C-alpha cells in the first residue's frame, strides 16, 4: 500500500516523498484536499500524512481538520498522521482526539516519522486482513445457515464454525453421536442441530439428564413401568426410549451414570430392545442416541468407572465443543443475543468497558455463565448502559480476577501482534493506547496480562 502525502508546499512534499522512498515506502503527493480525496478513492492508500494548512496565509489548522473529517467519512479506518507547525497544534490535538493516528511537529524527526509510518502500515495491513477473514467467516456462516437448520446458534469463531459444520454434516448419518465438552459450553444446542437436520426431525426430540437419575428410578424413567411395578405406581408409565420412538433421545451427562445404570442402558442402545419395569414383554424402539458428557470417558474406562463397550456404542462419531475461553470471538455476539432475548423492549447497550471486560474474562462457567451474567446485568443496571460493574466484572471484583485463559494460537497471536504494535506506536503510554482502543486502562492491563505482554519501563539517567 502507498503513503499519501498531502502538502501544498512542493519542496516539503518532495522531501517527504524522497525520505519515504529511501526507506522502501512508495509515496504519492496531493497538493490540495480535493486531490487527496481523489487519491484515496482511486488508489491503494495505506497511510495519509497531511499538512494542517493548504491556503496561503492559513495558520489555524482548520483546513487540515476539515480534510481529516472528509477522510474519516470516506474510510473510517484509514490511519492519518498530521504534520503541524506550532500555530496549528491545537487543531492537530483535536484531530488525534477525533481518531487521527498521531501528529508530528515540523521540522520532523526522520527516524520517528519513518517508524510511525511503517507501524501504521503494518497495523493497516493487519486490519484489512482481519476484515477479509471476518468477511470470509461471515460468508461461510451464511452458506452453512442456508444449507442446514442451525436452531438459532450464535457464534463468530472458526472453532465453533467447525463444530456446527460437523454437526450439520453428520446429522443425516443416523448413527450414535457423542458430544463432549465442559459444562455450559452448548452441547445441548449441538444435539438439537443434529436432530433438526436428520431424517427424524419431524419426530420427538427427548432430553434426559441421565447422570441425575438414581439407580432405583433409572429403569422406570428410561424404559417405563407397568401399574404396580413399584410402590405408588397406579398407572402405566411410558419411558423416555418409548417416547422418543422414531426420533432422537438425548442422554446428557452420560459420564455420571453408575456402572449398574450403564449395564441397563447398554442393551437398549445395542439392540433397541427393553422391558418396562414390571413386565416381561420385550419391546423394540427405533431411536437415534445422542449422548453428551463433560467427563473424560477414556480416563474413566482406565479407572474402571465406565464401560468400554458402552463407549463404543455411543461414540460412533464424536463432536467436541470447545470452552468459551477458547473461542472469545463468540462472547460479544452471544452477549448481544442474550440482551435481545431479555424482557426489556429496548435492551440497554454494553459500555466499551463492559465489552472489554467480557472478552477479557476467563468464563469458567462458559456460555451458561455468560447468559446468567447478562440477565442479571439487564435487571440491576441503573444507567443508560450496562457497565462492567453491572456484570460483576469490574476491576478488583472476584469474577474479574479469575485466572485468565490462554488465547488460541491463531486468534491470540494476531491480537497480541496488533496490541504490541499499538504500544510501540504510542511509546508505551497506557493512557494513549487505552484511548485508541476505547477501553479503560484497567481493561487494557487485563488484556495485556491475558496476552502475556510485559511493558518495559526505561528511565533516563
TrEMBL record:
Region (Disordered) spans which residues?
A: 397-417
Output compositional bias ranges, type Low complexity. 397-412
**Keywords noted in UniProt:** ATP-binding, DNA-binding, Nucleotide-binding, Phosphoprotein, Transcription, Transcription regulation
| Modified residue annotations for 4-aspartylphosphate | 51
Domain Sigma-54 factor interaction, by residue range, is: 153-379
What PANTHER family does the annotation carry? TRANSCRIPTIONAL REGULATORY PROTEIN (PTHR32071), TWO COMPONENT SIGNAL TRANSDUCTION SYSTEM SIGMA54-DEPENDENT RESPONSE REGULATOR FIS FAMILY (PTHR32071:SF86)
**What is this protein called in UniProt?**
Sigma-54 dependent transcriptional regulator
Amino acid at each position: 500500500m502507498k503513503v499519501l502525502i498531502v502538502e501544498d508546499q512542493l519542496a516539503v512534499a518532495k522531501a517527504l516523498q524522497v525520505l519515504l522512498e529511501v526507506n522502501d515506502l512508495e509515496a504519492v503527493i496531493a497538493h490540495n484536499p480535493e486531490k487527496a480525496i481523489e487519491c484515496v478513492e482511486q488508489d491503494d492508500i495505506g497511510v495519509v500524512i497531511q499538512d494542517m494548512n493548504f491556503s496561503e496565509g492559513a495558520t489555524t489548522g482548520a483546513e487540515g481538520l476539515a480534510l481529516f473529517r472528509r477522510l474519516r467519512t470516506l474510510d473510517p479506518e484509514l490511519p492519518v498522521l498530521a504534520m503541524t507547525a506550532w500555530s496549528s497544534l491545537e487543531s492537530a490535538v483535536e484531530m488525534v482526539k477525533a481518531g487521527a493516528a498521531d501528529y508530528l511537529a515540523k521540522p520532523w524527526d526522520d527516524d520517528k516519522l519513518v517508524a510511525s509510518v511503517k507501524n501504521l502500515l503494518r497495523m493497516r495491513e493487519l486490519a484489512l486482513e482481519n476484515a477479509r477473514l471476518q468477511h470470509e467467516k461471515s460468508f461461510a456462516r451464511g452458506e452453512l445457515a442456508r444449507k442446514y437448520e442451525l436452531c438459532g446458534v450464535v457464534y463468530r469463531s472458526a472453532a465453533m464454525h467447525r463444530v456446527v459444520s460437523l454437526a450439520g454434516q453428520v446429522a443425516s448419518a443416523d448413527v450414535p453421536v457423542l458430544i463432549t465438552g465442559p459444562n455450559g459450553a452448548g452441547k445441548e444446542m449441538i444435539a438439537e442441530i443434529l436432530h433438526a437436520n436428520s431424517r427424524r426431525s419431524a419426530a420427538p426430540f427427548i432430553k434426559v439428564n441421565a447422570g441425575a437419575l438414581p439407580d432405583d428410578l433409572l429403569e422406570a424413567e428410561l424404559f417405563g413401568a407397568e401399574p404396580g411395578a413399584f410402590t405408588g405406581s397406579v398407572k402405566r408409565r411410558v419411558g423416555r426410549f418409548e417416547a422418543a420412538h422414531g426420533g432422537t433421545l438425548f442422554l446428557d451427562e452420560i459420564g455420571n451414570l453408575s456402572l449398574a445404570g450403564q449395564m441397563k442402558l447398554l442393551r437398549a442402545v445395542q439392540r433397541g430392545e427393553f422391558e418396562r419395569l414390571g413386565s416381561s414383554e420385550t419391546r423394540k424402539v427405533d431411536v437415534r442416541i445422542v449422548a453428551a458428557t463433560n467427563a473424560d470417558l477414556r480416563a474413566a474406562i482406565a479407572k474402571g468407572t465406565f464401560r468400554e463397550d458402552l463407549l463404543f456404542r455411543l461414540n460412533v462419531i464424536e463432536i467436541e465443543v470447545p470452552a468459551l475461553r477458547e473461542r472469545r470471538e463468540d462472547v460479544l455476539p452471544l452477549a448481544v443475543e442474550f440482551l435481545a432475548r431479555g424482557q426489556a423492549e429496548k435492551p440497554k447497550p454494553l459500555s466499551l468497558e463492559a465489552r472489554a471486560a467480557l472478552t477479557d474474562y476467563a468464563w469458567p462457567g462458559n456460555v451458561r455463565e455468560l447468559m446468567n451474567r447478562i440477565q442479571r446485568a439487564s435487571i440491576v443496571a441503573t444507567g443508560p448502559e450496562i457497565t462492567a460493574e453491572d456484570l460483576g466484572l469490574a476491576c478488583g471484583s472476584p469474577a474479574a480476577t479469575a485466572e485468565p485463559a490462554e488465547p488460541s494460537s491463531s486468534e491470540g497471536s494476531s491480537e497480541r501482534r496488533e496490541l504490541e504494535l499499538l504500544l510501540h506506536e504510542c511509546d508505551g503510554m497506557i493512557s494513549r493506547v487505552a484511548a485508541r482502543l476505547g477501553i479503560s486502562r484497567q481493561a487494557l492491563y487485563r488484556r495485556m496480562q491475558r496476552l502475556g505482554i510485559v511493558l518495559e519501563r526505561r528511565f533516563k539517567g
